[in-house]
TrEMBL record:
Region forming the signal peptide: none
UniProt source species: Mesobacillus zeae
Family: Belongs to the ROK (NagC/XylR) family.
UniProt xrefs under InterPro entries: ATPase_NBD, ROK
Gene3D superfamilies: 3.30.420.40
Pfam families: ROK
Record PANTHER family: ROK (REPRESSOR, ORF, KINASE) FAMILY, SUGAR KINASE
Name listed for the protein in its UniProt record: ROK family protein
Lineage: Bacteria, Bacillati, Bacillota, Bacilli, Bacillales
Length: 298
């Protein structure tokens, strides 16, 4: 069995795992991020790798390589984290830094959503002639498209679903502002005139039957459906999988979104409703995808 390290880097945490060549997660470790400066942040990445190796009683010599998912824009060829809005890593040489620290020469990097999408695409066993879309709804909203086995990247910034304008309470807003985790908090605070409230509590209150939270969740479902209708109309994908804490932790939301989306769709588009599902890999899809990508390079 071949093994690789997968790393999923975020603004609040870094997860590292040992992944088999069949996509199995053999070991996992997680540390808090330190975005105070670029070197401190990299030190935490290295710590996550060292922890997962220690837990597994394996060494880097037992690994085929390292795969890394980084938020924002990356330069795959040069191995550089180009820009992230939640990390101090503008133009950071992540590949060279990992090579120097761990000695491995096979390192692949990509945007974190693309890494997660790769894992979901492999897990879903999508046919090579089909179009697959992965959508993450979490702190932000984004998507990745795999068409006929290859990523669609555009000029390098494709998949920013959260930037699409949607109609919310009579005004045009970016989808991410009203349907991401922070957006849901803000929507509840403004609509219900509340103080600070977590996204988790918004959903919990709705599930407990507190009627005042009904319109908030309805608005979230409606705006998500608007964004997804753009995907349905432009790409007409064969399969769509959701990830990210907002929808993974609240799976009932998918059915609400499908009800809203059906209203927008023509009958010829509604095949997608039966091909929309929530990730079974959940919060590990980023590290699994990152590690799995290493074997594509062998």
């Amino acid at each position: 069995m071949k093994r690789a390290i997968g790393i999923d880097i975020g603004g609040t945490k870094i997860a590292a795992g040992i992944i088999s060549d069949t996509g199995g997660l053999l070991e996992r470790a997680e540390v808090k991020s330190d975005p105070s400066d670029r070197e401190n942040m990299f030190a935490r990445v290295a710590e996550a790798v060292e922890q997962v190796l220690e837990k597994s009683d394996l060494s880097m010599d037992d690994m085929e390589g390292i795969g890394v998912g980084v938020p924002g824009k990356v330069d795959q060829e040069k191995g550089i984290a180009v820009f992230q809005n939640n990390l101090p890593w503008q133009q950071f040489p992540i590949t060279a830094s990992l090579e120097e620290r761990f000695g491995t020469k096979l390192i692949t990097i990509d945007n974190d959503v693309y890494m997660a999408a790769f894992a979901e695409w492999k897990a879903a066993q999508v046919k090579n002639d089909e179009t697959f879309v992965y959508v993450t709804v979490s702190t932000g909203i984004s998507c990745s498209v795999i068409h006929k086995g290859s990523f669609f990247r555009g000029a390098g910034f494709a998949g920013e679903l959260g930037l699409i304008p949607v109609l919310s309470h009579g005004a045009n807003e970016r989808l991410e502002k009203v349907a991401s985790g922070p957006g849901i908090q803000e929507l509840a605070q403004k609509s219900l005139k509340l103080g600070a409230i977590s996204t988790k509590k918004v959903f919990a209150s709705y599930l407990k039957g507190k009627q005042e939270f009904g319109p908030v969740i309805d608005e979230v479902a409606n705006t998500l459906a608007q964004g997804l209708y753009a995907i349905s109309s432009i790409l007409d994908p064969h399969k769509l999988v959701f990830g990210g804490s907002v929808i993974v932790n609240n799976p009932f939301l998918l059915e609400l979104v499908k009800e809203k989306l059906k209203v927008y769709q023509l009958p010829e588009q509604q095949h997608l409703l039966g091909q929309m599902s929530i990730s079974t890999l959940k919060q590990d899809n980023g590290i699994i995808g990152a590690g799995w990508r290493v074997f594509e390079r062998l």
